Every structure is written in C-alpha cells, then in structure tokens.
Amino acid sequence: MDLKNMYIKIKKNGIGPKTYQILKSLGVNTIYDLINLFPKKYLDFTITGLNLDNAFVIGSVFTAAKNTFVKKNLNYITFDAKVEDKIVKVTIFNRPFLINKLNVGQTIYIEGKYEEKNSKIIASNIYFSIKENTLEPSYEIEGIPSKSLKKIILSALDEYSIYNKEHLPKFIIEKYNLPDINTSYRLIHSPETKLDFELAIKRFKYEEFLEFELKLQYLRMLNQKEEKTPKKWDINEIRDFIKTIPFEFTSAQKRVTNEIYKDLKSTFPMNRLVQGDVGSGKTIVAALALYAVALDGYETCFMVPTEVLAYQHYENLTKLFKKTNIRLGLLTSSIKGKKRIELLDKIKNHDLDVIIGTHALFTDDIVYDKLGLVITDEQHRFGVNQRRALREKGFNPDVLYLTATPIPRTLAISVLGDMDSSIIDELPKNRKQIKTKVVLEDNLDACLNFMDSEIKNNHQIYVISPLIEESKKVELHDVFETYELLKNKFPNYKMEVLHGKMKQEEKDLIMRRFKNNEFQILISTTVIEVGIDNPNATVMAIFNAERFGLSQLHQLRGRVGRGSSESYCFLITNNIDAKRLKIIEQTTDGFKLAEEDLKLRGPGDFFGSRQSGMPKFKFGDLIADYRMLEKAKDDAYFIVFTVGLDKYFYLNDKVMKEINSIKD
Fewer CB within 10 A of the terminal residue: the chain, N end or C end? Predict the structure, then answer.
C-alpha cells in the first residue's frame, strides 16, 4: 500500500463535500498530498509583549467596539484594549463580523504592529479561545478553517501512518538525531513547542538535501564508470614547452595543472571545473592540458561563447605554440563556403590538433577523428544540451570547464556536486591591482576629467550603462544617453556604442576595432563582461553601479588592467548610501565578493536557472543551510560509492525514478 495511491474521500477523516472540492482544486487528491499540505505559518501564542512587531499579545476588550464604514469594501473597527496594564487603541480593517464578538471584558489575542509613540496596535488578526503558550498552524486556505484542516490531517495520520514508509537510512536518523517520518509529520501539523517544529523542519530540510545530492553523486559515479584509455605523454616534452613560456607559473597554476594531469591519466573521463579570477592564468593551464593530449595523438575542442573570444584564443594559442608542432584551427559560424569545407576535411582527417570555436564546433556535419579533450570557457553560458552534444562528438573525452566567475563555496556544494573543482586563487606577480573608486554622480565631472587625461596618454576607456534604451519605469542611464553625454564632453574623441540587440558579427567587429585602437571610448551594456583582452584600456566607468551584483562589477572591472599601465575602475552611482559598493572598492578577491553577493542577492546572480539546474528547495535555503547541505553531500557520497544505492531500498520512489531516468 502506498499513500500516493490512496485517494481522499468525502465523509472520511472529517472531509465534507465542500472541503473535498476545495482540496481537489488545490491538487490534493491523495492522502500523501493531504499530509504534505504544510502550514503557511504558525500563530505563535508563546510570544507576548508590545515591543515586538508581528507578535501576539494577550489582552482584554476595555471599551465597546465601534464599526466605521468609510465606503464600499472599506471599514474598520476601533476599541481600547487592556494589555500588560496598559490601555492601547486597537484598529482592525475590513472585519465587520467581529463587532458582535468584541464584548467588554472578553479575552482576546491580537496579531499586529504596535506603535509605541501612539500606544496603538494596527491589528491584522484577532483570535478568541486560543490556548496560551501554543503554536497553532495556519494553512491560509480560503473556505477551510485552519483548525478544521488540522483535525482532518491528524485523523489521516492516525489511520494511514502505518503505510507511510521511512525514506531516510537508519544511520542518518541516528547520526543527526532526527525524528522518524511519521513523528515529523505530526510535529509539523501539531507542534506543542517551537522545538518540535524546528526538529521536524530539520528532518525535512535534510531529506530534500540528501535526495538532491544523491542524484549528483550518482551522476558522478556514472561518469567514473565510463572507461577511457588513459592519456600518456613524455613529461620532458612538457618541460621543454614550459621553458618557451615567457613568465613564471604561480603555485596555484602548478597545483591545478597537476590535478588536470592526474585526471587525464586516469581510466575514467575527466569532468573538472577550473575557477579563477580574470587574469589568473586559466588559459595557459588549459593550454598545458591540450598540449599533453596532443602529444598522445588526440584532438582538442576549445569552445567559447563568442566569436571575438574565439579569435582571441586562436591568436594567443598560435603565439604560444609557435615553437611546437601543434596545429590549430578556428571554426565559427561566420566561416562559410569553401573555407569551411576545407576546415571540416582537416578536422575529419586529423590534420589539426586543436580546434577553437563557438557553438559551431558541435554541428552535425563535423566529424572528429580522435577527440580526446573538450574545453569550454565560461561553461555556464552554454546550455546543458550544447555541452553534451560536443562531448558526444568523441568517445568519452575528458572535459574541462573554465570560468572567471568565482563560485562561492556555499553554492558550489550544490551546483558542482557531479564534477571536480579546481581553484586558481593566486594572481601572477606582475599583475597590477586595479584601483577602484565609488563616485557619486554629483562628482562626475572630476571622473570625466580623469578619463580625458587617460585618453590624452593614448589609453582607451570602457563605459558601461545598464540599459540599451531609455526606460520610463526607472531613471537609469542607457547607452545612447551616455553616448550623448560623453560626445558633448569629448567632441574630438571617437566613440562607439555596443549592446546586446546587435548582431554577433557587428559586436565582434566593434570589439576588434576597439582592440586595434581605432576609437577611444567604448560605450556598452554588460555584453563586454566576457570580452577580448585590450591591454591599452585603462579605465572602466560603470554608470548606475548600484544596479549590478558585486560579482558582475568584478567581472567588468577585469576588462581593464590587462597591460603594464596603471588601471582604474569608477563605480558611478546616485545612491549616497552606497555601502555595498564600498565592499568592491576595498577588495579585489573575487571569491570574497562572490560570498557577499550570495548573501545580498541570492544564487540567481551567478547562473541562469535554466542552464545551471539551480535547485529549488521547499524547506532548505542554499545560503543559510549550506552546512547541512555539505553534510548531505558527504552522506550521499558514502551511500553511492561505499554502500551502494541498491542497499537503500527505502529511498523514496521519486528519487529512485529520477536516478533510473539518469541511468537510462
């Protein structure tokens, strides 16, 4: 017997015809649905006092209640109540039916906001005959009083609890001192104390975290069950290549390279994310990986989100490998006709070792001879299906993801559960810190004058605006308004506008012209967040900086400081109380900023939910409960890799179905 197959019935467990129809309209069809209809909130009659907003206070009606009708659908009741030996004025709106219940001397419980200055309570609810020092569930379902619904649910639990299977392994329940499944449902629907409620919530939080992490760890196990031929190469050839690189590797780059090499030599495919701030040297680490793979006779795909980045990587890698036999090719959607056909033949015949490009790398007409490594830059910008399509072009190739978006540890636990992660947490010694300053719009002239001096020194400027076009809803700078502002200030300078509505070819052309120093000022939206290296750009000015997340501001700031000259970032705002912006003014640590951003803005600022598979939890919170999530990840790893999922037959059906679908 399964609660999911036991349907609610009229005249059963106190369910009448009207209640039955309301429950059905809410999608409550089974006993399982019914007991999982959790309270929206609890009426906390354990709290009393006039110093707490949204608290309950015990009092008595002191003067006769008066009902005032202002107009249709607007009325209010006023009366004096005696609370804690004080007389307070109580007002409650649109509850005309209470007038006959509010008798002088009647004990009442008032929920509302207390205004100490006027000795006044604006009540949201008034309750009668409630037990003191209790928590009462409030389901907030129109047409079914919470008391009635509580009785219905408790009656169902009494009758059907023997069919409610335990979902958690016994060792988990004992390890964290969690209540069993039926006790948890009772504590949710009928807690006697706050501790009861908190214990039940803890149980349900952990359960959904474990379910989520089991799926991620199962994906990890499937990846490790896939076999591949370990890559082999002569380490002396790697050392000779490193000698040609004109800079010293940081200890972080060395550590991450060794982690990648260990994966390449293993018998299961690599699935690793490399995180590193802008300028930390992720590309050279990726280059060492693809060089090792090429030495063993395999091809590498290097996929990036834009054509301009593809060209940049192609140019940089061509310079890097000029003293080797590595053969590189560039494939983008703009390469067409005879040139494309020739390129596809080279790929098919393995006349190229490294193919750099955009999403064009995984179209149906491309056939790889021996694809051994797939590298994707800014991997969260590609959909899951795009990444899978490229991976399927080879036979279990190693996969390396690169991102300059530092992912907070609290978020990485959930997002990166099915892959390994490396962090390049050190910048090269010659990398100069970008000087960052918050600028109020009242002081904009001083900022513009500084920009003028930089241009006169033959440097270039990025200027960011949050909007493409003027908005009537919010007063923000758009790129065309900013263009007019700067054109008036700098009539003799050349400038261009760049935004997301342009065609990709047009955007790429503007970025290349900017890199070639054909104009001095590039006015853009955040489409340049991931863009080309322009060592000549020394100033990043961001209008309405308060509208951006700290991580996004950090990414934009990373567009400058690519050359030997001192570089600057101005965060322009009309927000006098710009405390949040002061954080980025004071630190260049992307991971610290990412943690702050996560606290302030939530996980949506890092990834689009459609592409990243961001989980939505009913009870748990990714930020507040990350320690519990971390424990669930460890337990899921133990269950999947040490004990085996098949031993835990009591894991609920939903999880097992999802895991089986992954298997299929």
Answer: C
